[in-house]
Design goal:
Blueprint lengths: L3 H7 L3 E2 L2 E5 L6 E5 L2 E5 L4 E7 L3 H9 L1 E6 L5 H9 L7 H7 L4 E3 L6 E3 L4 E13 L2 E13 L6 E3 L2 E3 L10 H13 L3
Antiparallel strand pairs: 1-11, 2-3, 2-6, 4-5, 5-10, 6-9, 7-8, 9-10, 11-12
The structure holds flavin mononucleotide.
Flavin mononucleotide binds next to strand 3, strand 5, helix 2 and helix 3.
């Protein structure tokens, strides 16, 4: 059992929202996954962590492939619908199309990809394993695209915009930092 301290500490993470697209026994589907992380640069590997009861999990177990579409700032409604309804009950792709989302056919996987996402990655599963509550899939990226759209930010169960850039320390502070670092050289 987790205590309140642990539950609330968990809300302090800041993440992207990965919109995970798949195709399989459930049909074409999309779900929101905040637990979407790059874990290797070359080969380019992405890990996603899915609740075992999700429709997406069933699709990927069968197809061994998935799409990662990093949601952009204008795609909050897609994140909400993809994260609050299951593909076992709702055709989320068709519903989202009616609401203005656009999808296209992937080149290397049999799943729809989302237009106007910040970045998209077509992934082939190289490994999967259950860790605690979630199933982790590691996908090798076989095709990537990106756009000029800013990524949506997920934090404390809300969607945010990237706003202000934190400036670097001024030259005097930088000099002071370098001095101190030099003094601590091993
Ligand atoms: C912003 C957001 C992020 C989410 N991140 C995850 C996640 O990382 N892993 C997960 O298993 N569920 C996550 N969920 C919940 C799933 O998206 C939700 O259970 C969804 O209904 C699963 O869809 P499916 O059954 O069609 O696969 C998230 C929901 C939201 C709104």
């Amino acid at each position: 059992m987790l205590n309140d301290q642990t539950i609330n500490a968990g809300k302090k993470f800041v993440t992207n929202v990965g919109l995970i697209t798949s195709n399989g026994p459930i049909g074409q589907n999309i779900m929101s996954a905040e637990w979407t992380h790059r874990i290797s640069s070359d080969p380019f590997l992405i890990a996603i962590c899915l609740n075992a009861g999700n429709a997406t999990n069933e699709n990927i177990l069968n197809s061994n492939e998935f799409g990662v579409n990093l949601a952009s700032e204008s795609q909050g409604f897609i994140c909400s619908i993809s994260g609050n309804y299951t593909g076992k009950e709702i055709d989320k792709i068709k519903a989202l199309e009616k609401l203005g989302a656009e999808f296209y056919k992937a080149e290397n996987i049999d799943a729809p990809m989302l237009k106007n996402a910040t970045a998209t990655f077509e992934c082939k599963v190289i490994e999967h394993k259950k860790y605690g509550s979630h199933m982790m899939y590691i996908g090798c990226v076989v095709k990537a695209t990106y756009s000029d759209e800013n990524p949506i930010v997920y934090h404390s169960k809300k969607f945010w915009k990237i706003s202000e850039n934190i400036p670097k320390p001024n030259p005097k502070k930088l000099e002071e930092m370098e001095d101190i670092i030099e003094k601590h050289r091993k």
